[in-house]
Design a protein that fits this description.
Layout lengths: L2 E5 L2 E4 L12 E6 L2 E6 L5 E4 L3 H26 L12
Antiparallel strand pairs: 1-2, 2-3, 3-4, 4-5
């Protein structure tokens, strides 16, 4: 489960071959003991719980990095190492 980005204390992960449970491109985010799964397409929270402020931060990052995230998704579901993606600054 590679970490693909880290910003504002939020760790963004993408698991290998993780296309069975949620059936769509997604990322996992961790922040202070909380974990949530976000859809790449629209930033929707698919599972888990996250503080509202951090949800908005992750959703903004997804919107800015959607193209890179979808490329990483293709690599990860094929068992390949996804690239690191620039954090929010």
């Amino acid at each position: 489960m590679p970490t693909i980005s880290l910003f504002y204390g939020i760790m963004i992960l993408m698991f290998y071959r993780d296309n069975n449970q949620h059936h769509l491109p997604h990322i996992h985010a961790r922040y202070q003991g909380k974990e949530a799964v976000f859809a790449i397409e629209d930033g929707a929270v698919l599972n888990g719980s996250f503080p509202p402020k951090q949800i908005k931060i992750v959703q903004a990052w997804i919107e800015l990095r959607k193209e890179d995230l979808l490329l990483d998704w293709e690599l990860a579901v094929n068992g390949e190492e996804p690239f690191r993606i620039a954090p929010l600054q």
